[in-house]
Amino acid sequence: PKVMLHGQVMDITTDNDSMVLSDVYGCCNVSDENTLQPQRIGQMAQMNPDQTTLVLQDAMAAWNGGMGVWPQMSLQDRITAIETFLTELALQREPIVLTLMWEIGKNRQDAEAEFDRTMEFCYKVLEVVKTDPEYSAGWQ
User: Fold this and answer.
1) In the chain, what is the straight-line distance between the N-terminal and C-terminal CA atoms, in Å?
2) How far is it, in rounded angstroms, from Cα 102 to Cα 114?
3) Dihedral angle computed from the Cα positions of residues 28, 1, 116 and 136, in that order, rounded to the nearest 10 degrees
4) Is the bond preceding 28 in cis, omega lying within 30 degrees of 0?
5) pLDDT in tens, 74-109
């Protein structure tokens, strides 16, 4: 797996020069002794303090006192960026549904409905922003 950190793509590995992966557990499997045992559901990258500082520096540079790329981007460009993000997010529907099931105990039908409802809400908000004259007049 890879992540973007401080403008560079980094491998997530188990060595000390990169990010460390920690196991993530959900609840629960029934063991042979009829007791509940945590179920390993995946791994999550853990950053060291230096890497965390780089993330903070990247965020500060992106904001740049309100003069960064995102804060200076036109409304249309922001909408396009969010639509691109939502398109990529839709490709991750299954892993997100599984995470909802494991992490908060939703059944599949409810987890799928939550994902779909959230995506629908995002697209409806974008549609309002695109068509409502209050937004097309510019930010105040």
Assistant:
1) 42
2) 14
3) 140
4) yes
5) 889 999 999 999 999 999 999 999 989 888 889 999
